[in-house]
Amino acid sequence: MAWRRLGQIFTADGKQPWARSHAALPAPVYLDGDVFRFFYSSRDGDKRSHVGWVDVEVSERPRIHGVARAPVMAPGEDGAFDDSGVGVGCVVKTEDGFSLYYMGWNLGVRSPWRNAIGLARSQTPAAFERYSPGPILDRSPDDPYTLSYPCVLRLGAGDWRMWYGSNLAPAVGNADMQHAIKFARSDDGVHWKRDGKVAVGFASEGEYALARPSVVKAGDKFLMCFACRGERYRIGAASSDDGANWMRLDEAMGLDPSSSGWDSEMTCYPALFWHRDRLWLAYNGNGYGATGFGLAVWEGDLPL
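RE: above sequence
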């Protein structure tokens, strides 16, 4: 029972002004047949993140069917919460279109950045429009410092769930960062209730950040993968009966860096998805997406 890597799938070619480097944070949306549209974040010459897409045939031999020539989302206007960049969390299909949940950020002065969670919508998986100029989830008494990439599931009418990253203490760098995963609920996917409790915390003293959760249903359980930051970046995993209380499964379902190649220094920013009754994983490798993203497929029974 393990992830079988299918290799590096896509990298930014650097030809587009909005995508000079990186294809980070892959977020899959099913189109037709074996083809998924993977939204991703690329950086322009000023290192501001935009959102583009690539269509990929998900199979034992993945191949690219098409690549966006223009971004579906750009950084917000100067002074907006996302004027320094937009990073994909997930894309949710609804009855009337698609909802893109993302992290927007501002560059800071005493602290390097400030992050919050935004929402954009589209009737087709193409150009998205912001739900509002401001975030749908920002700093609050429950999340006093900064928030990061959200994962949203719609489980039924009036039952929306979100998992997102949140700093547990003020931080100006990696040395004092404590960033864990929290949980929120919503009736409509826009207005969220949270209690500030940590849903997934650190497995060891060496860990100091968990980010970019990705959650799927696996039978009657929830399964999550996420990026773990410690001695090195790697992908961790956890399972839950209710979506709020989680048990770590890193040894059974995590994904460490490989011995060589594009993901030898780190594995990060995972995205779980089901296709043809198989569990797949899109993820980034070295340089936080500088080497693009790849795919892996789970072989064997799930250890749940």
